Amino acid sequence: MGEITISKQLDCKGLCCPMPVVKTKKAMKEMAPGEVLEMVATDPGSIPDMEAWARQTGNKLLEAKDEGGTFRFLIEKKGAESTASVTQPVDTTGAEGAESAADGEDLEVVQLDCKGLCCPMPVVKTKKAIKGMKVGQLLEMVSTDPGAMPDMEAWARQTGHELVEARDEGDTFTFLIKKTH
Fold first, then answer.
1. 173 and 105, same structural domain?
2. pLDDT over threshold 70, residue 101
3. At CB < 8 A and 24+ separation, what contacts does 152-159 make?
4. Which residue among 17, 114, 118, 119 is the active-site one?
5. Is there a contact between 126 and 112 (Cβ–Cβ < 8 Å)?
6. Are 59 and 94 in contact (CB under 8 A)?
7. How would you classify residue 35: left for phi > 0, otherwise alpha for psi between -120 and 50, otherwise beta?
8. Residue pair 115/93 in contact by the 8 Å Cβ criterion
């Protein structure tokens, strides 16, 4: 590969998912097709998140490099000829109606299927589902996004909800989250 001209730099160090993806998306909107963005982050979930985001949006991930805890990405904005957007199906089965459990009853485990969704959607859908639940209720979220493991761990730390269990089952990642407030 020849010399790459960086058109814009973006510092996302210290930010956790979904912010590196959100800020990258915003920066890319301000760039012309073919221009290259250099983004640096410290979130370990950034590499799978940026790979998935680039695939999903059609932008070209030229480089994704771990530089000892700092992650460097070079992303080329897709050309004007590739304007097709990618949409993913959303399944929030179980997220609605979770508030209907009466006080004193055993609270049902809410199921949330985020398979096929890429960052930041598993975190966004989890946040929405938790919001509609009762304190003490459990949410089981299943994802196929490899970035979901570090993303959900960071999200639980930031929000104070309890990550009871996080299982890596090869192609799927299952999380059991208890609403604490």
1. yes
2. no
3. 152/122, 152/123, 152/126, 152/177, 154/16, 154/17, 154/43, 154/45, 155/16, 155/17, 155/123, 155/126, 155/127, 158/16, 159/127, 159/130
4. 17
5. yes
6. no
7. beta
8. no
> Which of 43, 76, 109 marks a domain boundary?
76
**Judgement on whether residues 173 and 102 belong to the same structural domain of the protein:** yes
pLDDT class of 1 with cuts at 50, 70, 90: low
Active site residue 119: no
**Stretch 126-142: mean pLDDT:** 94
**CATH value at residue 167:** 3.30.110.40
Q: How far apart are CA 69 and CA 95, in angstroms?
A: 36
What percentage of the chain exceeds 90 in pLDDT?
53
The verdict on residue 149 lying in a domain is: yes
Q: Which range marks the domain in which residue 153 is found?
A: 98-178
